[in-house]
Amino acid sequence: MTDAKKEHSHSKKEIDTVSGVETTGHEWDGLKELNNPAPRWWLWVFYISIIWSVWYWVVYPAWPTFSGATKGAYGWTQYKKLAAEQQEIKDRQKAYLDKFEKASFDQILQDKQLYAFAVAGGSAFFKDNCATCHGTGGMGGKGFPNLNDDDWLWGGDIGTIYQTIRYGVRSKHEDTRVSQMPAFGVEKLLEKEEIEKVVDYVLSLSDPQSAAGKDLSEGQEIFELNCASCHGEDAKGSREVGAPNLTDSIWLYGGDRETVFKTVFYARSGVMPSWVGRLDDNTIRELAVYVHELGGGETGKVASTVTAPDEATESVPEESVTAPEEQENGQDEAMPDEEAPENTPAPVQEDDSNPVKPMITLPNESEETGQEDGHDGE
């Protein structure tokens, strides 16, 4: 057979006897490839995807450049999309916010829609700003008060809670709540033996069995001379100075003997930042409503007027925030015996440039965050 005939025989397409489709001429170990055309629907999808890709490159940012990327005909960015979505949320909230701004706390509590709006917003803001210290459910922890019970240092009515959130406790704000328990051991106000006796007396107030067989007369006398000015002769505390009730079993740092001894010896100085300037007034009001309704809120005086943070620092009932020299700091628990105090106030960053999620430096086991510090921390 001539070369021309061989070439002609190889160029002739082979038809598969089973399917009746011609093959590509390729064969691997006896397997031959059929030359089926691509489905028409697949071709249409392929062509459309090419057209869509070209459209996308023109309309949206796509091609990298030395200055960033092409902006696209629409000028679309994720930042613009986020801003539009946030504006949509604000527009939906506006009807409630306008009414909320003008309403007193009494009116908010009586209006089901405003109340639900405040609790929902307060819950979200609480998780963002307060849960770090107080816990997501407001249950608190060692050094951070439980906001669900009915034990308060400064008061549990909604106006007082609002003021505590707004100005903080031992914060840098000039209107902050201030109370300070003397470090009776460090400052040599009492001898160690005297502290031991007053601790026995304090523990007996909430747990009489702890004093079984002990003479508490000297401890009681020391208490009356050094502690009653803040905690009261009956040891039930004083909300005017933020002194805790020592007759119940609720303790902020712990009620065991060692912990109470450390508190008397070293004192406590927990810090809660002021939120005015960090959060807008509506947000603080929503937080106040939310905390009040966690379970321990009290009825009583409330703020009847609402003004902007920079215009009214007295939008809630006046409350004593000045502590006497021997004022207890609202927690009668403890610092390490013969150790450096853990609760030396750490600086709290009061940077107003971040009004949503402020950075808070936590002091060791004692700083309280973004909610009212109101619960009894003995």
C-alpha Rg (nearest Å): 35 Å
Helix/strand structural class: mainly alpha
Regions with pLDDT < 50 over 5+ consecutive residues?
Answer: 303-378
Question: Mind summarizing the main beta sheet?
Answer: 2 strands, antiparallel
Overall mean pLDDT stands at 80
Instruction: Give the termini separation.
Output: 111 Å
Beta-strand share of residues: under 5%
* Cross-sheet strand order for the largest sheet: 1-2
Quickly count the helices.
12
The global form is elongated
Helical percentage: 25-40%
Number of strands: 4
What is the N-to-C succession of helices and strands?
A: HEEHEEHHHHHHHHHH
Give a written overview of the molecule:
The chain is 38% helix and 4% strand. With 378 residues, the chain is mainly alpha-helical. The chain has a domain at 40-64. It has helices at residues 3-11, 40-59, 78-102, 105-110, 112-129, 131-134, 158-167, 192-206, 217-226, 228-231, 257-266, 281-292; strands spanning 23-28, 31-34, 64-65, 68-69. Helix 5 (112-129) packs across helix 12. It is elongated. Strands 1-2 form a two-stranded antiparallel sheet. Strands 3-4 form a two-stranded antiparallel ribbon. The chain has 12 helices and 4 strands, in the order αββαββαααααααααα.
